[in-house]
Design goal:
By secondary structure, the chain is an alpha/beta fold. It is about 45% helix and about 15% strand. Among the domains are: about 160 residues, P-loop containing nucleotide triphosphate hydrolases (Rossmann fold, 3-Layer(aba) Sandwich), CATH 3.40.50.300; about 110 residues, Trna Endonuclease, Chain: A, domain 1, CATH 3.40.1350. The chain has 22 helices and 14 strands. The strands form 4 sheets. A 5-stranded parallel beta sheet has the order 2-3-4-1-5, sandwiched between helices. It has a 5-stranded mixed beta sheet with strand order 8-9-10-12-14. A hairpin with a 5-residue loop joins β8 and β9.
Length: about 475
Amino acid sequence: MRFYNRKQELELMGMLDAGKPSFLVITGKRRVGKTELIRQYTRNRKALYLFVDSNKSIDVLMDEFDSLVRETLELPDYIRLGEPESFLRFITSYESELVLAIDEFQRFLKVHPSFINQLQRYWDMRSDNCKVFLIVSGSSIGMIKKIFIEAQAPLFKRADNIMTLKPFTILETFEMLEEVGVKDLEEKLNLYFLFGRTIYYYRLFEKYQCTGFRDALEKLIFSDLAPLKDEVRDILIEEFGKEHSTYYEIISAISQGKCSKSEISEMTHVSASSLSAYFYDLIGLLDVVEHRVPITDKPQKSKRGRYFLKDNFFRFYGRFMYPMLSQYMGGNYRSLTEKVLQEWQSHTGKIFEDMVRELISEQMVHYYPIIGNWWNRRGDEIDILGINNEKGRVLAVEVKNRELTEDEARDILRLSTEKTEQIRELSKMDIEAGIVARKIEGRESLEKDGFLVWELRDLFSEMIL
């Protein structure tokens, strides 16, 4: 699989490299491609890649770094860098061209916290002739903030730039699937519903020569040697240790449609009042959960907030793996695969809605600067609600992950309009109603009557499908 669409990031890295000494921080959620970006940039450059393994002591880690540095830079035997201070002193005074990347840098907080303060001191004292481009990366976003961004952070304002690597867009993900041989739109959708925008999983898809969605399930997840068999569990153990099972419970509850604190509490052993600390980690550290409020509410004051999983693979794991872990560990893969296939339509309904909301929002944000979803305590919901206060207009769009007849579409549009009229803040605005479905009978008639209509293929019209 070729390297995808990180042109701006590579250009920034090149700019900082040319202005050495420079210090770049790269962060972003796990599997987003941070390490691959570093490898791509350092290819054909004099570079050192060092990985911070939290299972190693600082002594073992520094011995490893010392060996790598001396071998790569061909240093004489009398130069020893096995102590943190000698290593940092050498690096910040090195006067030859060098790109030095330290991956999972935040783990020093566990391995040897003083390394971070020592780096601050030596970086501040670095030689004017230093020719090092220092790159540190980390997937624990919250920890990176504590080290570099918060006001009291030890390396606050030391980095020349903090680059947050974002996942690929939906359209980029579908284009990537096209290039690896997945041509059918339904197959692309199902793979997206399973893996989201995490490129690492698609690299595995190609490496294991998967041919489609079911093949990916069987080769990558439901087999004794599957590379993703323990993916989520391992991530949670690494981040949260013995408490990982509690985070697992919360993720599973959200995966099964429990979105409020009270609902999540009922499915876990955690009281509603104690959930905030866990959400702080799942939102701030792992970036796999998000807290939403209705688009008409002020985030700081709303009491109607809900929690949703942002990561499709975590959704899958929480829905199909955790509740049936005994079967999974017992190797009962065939029945689990069948269960996934039987329940796939219901499982992917909300994922489809989120996907459509993002794509429609990109198209309509120019006309409706405020756009998102809406709900009330009675259970009424509007999938996509756009607001233009300046022009006094509202957009209400419903999303259905199925084909619709014209009568069904008209009923949905009528109900959507009625719900919008009942929202007090919007009751005096002009309403524009729309609908999204896989296919809609009588589309021309609906559009003639002033409704906005999107079918599945319209959402990917820029692509060759």
